[in-house]
Amino acid sequence: MPAFMVKVIFLLCLCVLLYATVSEGILVKKLLKFLFEKRSVVLFPVPIPIFRKVPPPVRQASLELHHKEILPPPPDYFIPPPPPYPPFPPYDDFAYPYP
Question: Which residues form the signal peptide (predicted)?
Answer without folding.
Answer: 1-20
